[in-house]
Amino acid sequence: MENVATHEDWRVCFAEAAPGLVLFARQFVRSIADAEDIVQEAFVKFWRKQHPIENRALLFATVRSTALDLLRRDVRRARREASAYAAAEHSVAPPEFDAITESQQALAAAVDQLPAEQREVLVMKIWNELTFADIGTVLSISQNTAASRYRYALAALKKNLISHE
Amino acid sequence: MNDFSELEAELKAMRPAAPSATLLARVERELAERATATQTAGVLPRRRESRVNWFGLGLGLAAAAAFLLLARMKVDQPVQTHPPVIAAASAAPQSMDVVPRTLVPDGVTRVVYNTSDEGLVYPESSAEPVRRVRSRSRETLQWKDPGTGASLRVSYPTEEVEFIPISGQ
Predict the structure, then answer these.
(1) What would the DSSP string read from start to end of B67-80?
(2) For a surface tag, which of A59, A81, B23, B92 has the fewest beta carbons within 10 Å of its beta carbon?
(3) For A21-38, what is each residue's pLDDT tens digit?
(4) Can you give the residue range of the structural domain that contains A26?
C-alpha cells in the first residue's frame, strides 16, 4: 500500500504522538533521555519504511522492539535496566504527567505499582487510545488477553485506591 | 458503561508530559536529512528473507562428492575375476569398463522435522520488526546406477531461518 503522507503529515503525526510514545518507552527504560532516544530511533525507522501513517499498532511495535533491542545491545545496560524493569513491579519512578493534582499523583503512584505487563497495556489504551486489537498486535497476544490485562489493571487500581481512602 | 468508567475518566484526565523541546527538532531534522539522502527509502518492496545453512549444505555436497569419487574409483579398478571351472575355456573376462556404469540422479527429498517460531526480532538491517521462524530439516539426495541397480544416497541436515515481515493489521 502506497503511503502518500507528506512531510508535514509526518511532522504533525509525531508532534501529536510523541508524549504518548515517550510515556510508553518509559515502561522499558527509566531515563527520560533514553526514552526519547528510543522514540526518535523508532519513529525514524517507521518513517523510513513508509508504513501507513495511521498504522499506530506498528508504530508502537516499533517503539517496543527498539526499546528491547536497546536493552539487548548493551549487556551492562541490559542488566541494569532488566533489574530496574523487574524492580518496576514494585517501585518505579512515577511517569510524568502534566498539571498533576494531589489525587492524580496518588493515581499515578498506583499505576506504577501495577505489574509491567498490565501497565504497558494501560499506557497504550488510556494515553494512546489504541484498540485492544492494536495492543494485541503490538504485544503479540490475543485481543482478549489484552482486554483482560486492561481489566485486571483497572481492578487493581481501584482496589489500591480504595485501600488508601 | 462498566464499573471502571469513572476510573478511566480520571486516568484520561491525566495527560502525559510533553517531551523535551529538542526531541521534535531532532526528529524533524533527521527526517529532512534522510529524505534528501535516500529518495527511495521505504518504497522498496518488502522481501522475504531466507537464510540457508550454507555450511551444512556445503558439508553435505562435499560428502556427496566424496562418495561419488569413491564409488567411481571402485568401479574403475580392474576386476579380479575368478572364472569358474566350467568357464575355463570361455572367452576372456570382460572388463568392467565396457559396462556403462553411471549414477544418475534418482530423487531428492526434504523432510522438515522441526519448525519453531522464535517471536519478533529487530534485525540491524531492517527498520521493522520481523518474525523469526527456524526450521530444521534433512535433505536426501539419491543416485542410481541403472545398469546394476546400485544406488547411492547422501543425507545431511539443514537449518533455515526465515525473517517474515509482520503485518501491522
Answers:
(1) HHHHHHHHHHSPP-
(2) B92
(3) 999 998 888 788 889 999
(4) 7-163
